[in-house]
Amino acid sequence: MGVMSISHSSSLLIGVPQNNGARRRSNVVVYCQGGGGNNVIKSSSGMSSMLSSLVSTDHAATLMDAGSLVLSQNGKNQAEIVVKDLVPYGGQTSTTLIGLENGIGIVNFLRGKKLFITGATGFLAKVLIEKILRTETDVGKIYLLIKAKNKQAAMERLQNEIINTELFKCLQQVHGKSYQAFMMSKLVPVVGNVCESNLGLDEGITNVIAEEVDVIVNSAANTTFDERYDTAININTRGPCRLMAIAKKCKKLKLFLHVSTAYVNGQRQGRIMERPFSIGDCIARENFISEAPKYLPTLDIEGEINLVSNYKGNIEDNLLAQKMKEMGLERARRYGWQDTYVFTKAMGEMMIDKLRGDIPVVVIRPSVIESTFSEPFPGWMEGNRMMDPIVLCYGKGQLTGFLVDPHGVLDVVPADMVVNATLAAMARHGMTQKPDINVYQIASSVVNPLVFQDLARLLYEHYSSSPCIDSKGRPIQVPLMKLFSSTEEFSGHLWRDAIQKSGLIAMASSKGKMSQKLENMCRKSVEQAKYLANIYEPYTFYGGRFDNSNTQRLMECMSEEEKKEFGFDVKSIDWKDYITNVHIPGLRRHVMKGRGMKLATTTRRQVHGSVGAKQRPKETHTTPDMPWYNPTSGGKEGIILDLMVQWLRRHGKEEL
Ligand SMILES: NC(=O)c1ccc[n+]([C@@H]2O[C@H](COP(=O)([O-])OP(=O)(O)OC[C@H]3O[C@@H](n4cnc5c(N)ncnc54)[C@H](OP(=O)(O)O)[C@@H]3O)[C@@H](O)[C@H]2O)c1
């Protein structure tokens, strides 16, 4: 089996440590409009006192480190976590962390380095690539793994999905006519697939990578919560194994940097530390310390891989997709994770630790990545993911409530801060090249928690001052979103809302037959909503808070200049400003691309202008969006039918 047959013998680490104190350049970062990075770091004093107050208050019992975490089986133990006693949104002051004079030397590290990046066409990796090229034009070649049928198709994807996109507009402005030549001198598309042996690389490029590459960045993933188990395990668990096999061939490799997710911590509760996983870890077992271990599940990754392969041979094709989906969720929950995505990512981390040998490894664990805070411009976003389908449906008047703990916390981080932390960690550990593994959680829930009921208020404030416009040009007024703590209450709300908005009762007398069909539609739609709420529930009732002490210490290693250029102080984020003036306007412009979402007013922080050249419309859903009904645009019944038919077809449900 590919996963287990990786050789440990070929690791040749002959990289020369970089001179940390080497010549430093003055400000090399080029900012686009609204950026400047000045707003990334504010100065203040609260962190150490806030942290000590966290561990000395009544809820200290829930803020334990991972060694003594308590798992609540339903993950709903919010009463124990007095979120409001943590730091509320807004009103944030920030840190007095003093930068070291010479800092980490991030720019120096990047100079001349050659990188191999997977997931290059994804949201996060593109922000990373853009920042590297804007920060250090003398970086060496960057090899980008791209799924494509041949070199020409990979080159087309490079052009259409990376080089010619709006995200790279600052670089286009900086390089002018030589932009294309500059990009082509740096970026090398490599045809491949993390699901294939040797990543599907041909011999020639394998040799080039083995000879030249200094840093490997693994950002490729399948991020769908309820993905088929076979698909998710192949990409998220076996993919890193295959990449590690390539890493072992690299003669100059200084670092293997893996992008994971903070939610690999599964159903852990309380304060969750930045600790690496090891083979055999199983979150379900952590909860039952008093029970005899023999009655608890033992996670055997090879066994899981075999389970998938064997099952596939024994099931009819037409049932396979659904069964694989169910199996992923069932296996994840059995072992203490909330869904297939985070479970297979956690197993990916375990395999990396098992296989790394003496290769230095950094694991970056961001929480929910949302639009850029300031660079290359505020509000850049791609894909409709995590909380965003809910935010957008709410703004369009399609969703007036959701299943969520009002006092719970949504852990959000802007994409540019994740990228900055990634580069800082890369330089720090790529320079020292110690053969260890370091984990960084890029997360806000401990140092600057965004509470759901505050988020709901911010959404309301945004859409009240900048409502969406319906097809007849009228502003869509939305009420404050109702937050429900139980599926029953949420379901009741959906029914009442569907009935009220569709006029179902009124139609029942005049068009009995049609209204029956409509009622069925509503029923199915409500069922869909409940299914999605069930998938979201582990996140909207999440009982863990992600500690980021390592990440804070990384920041302490940076010079003042680096903190300005590569800031990732999530504590400094003013959620009101970020959500209402940056993130939602960014979503409306870059994700919805203005469709039915015209901004009624201009926001204070300008979100970047027109849509760039030939961008592939990309449906990167973490979860699908939810068109229940659209009360605002004309004939009620037709709209409901249209939306539901579109929805069901798009997601492969039964024919109507
Ligand atoms: N977005 C978040 O909120 C978030 C939060 C925490 C952690 N993360 C982690 O951050 C990383 C990047 O996430 P993202 O948001 O940028 O994801 P994304 O936009 O969905 O991009 C995923 C990337 O992986 C590539 N990929 C998928 N399957 C592949 C395969 N078999 N072979 C090669 N490449 C493959 C995709 O290529 P195609 O374009 O060809 O599909 C795409 O480039 C992931 O590891 C994710 O787990 C994301």
UniProtKB/TrEMBL annotation:
Pfam families: NAD_binding_4, Sterile. Keywords: Lipid biosynthesis, Lipid metabolism, NADP, Oxidoreductase. It is an enzyme of class 1 (oxidoreductase). Its EC number is 1.2.1.84. Catalyzes the reduction of fatty acyl-CoA to fatty alcohols. This is Fatty acyl-CoA reductase. GO terms for molecular function: alcohol-forming long-chain fatty acyl-CoA reductase activity; alcohol-forming very long-chain fatty acyl-CoA reductase activity.
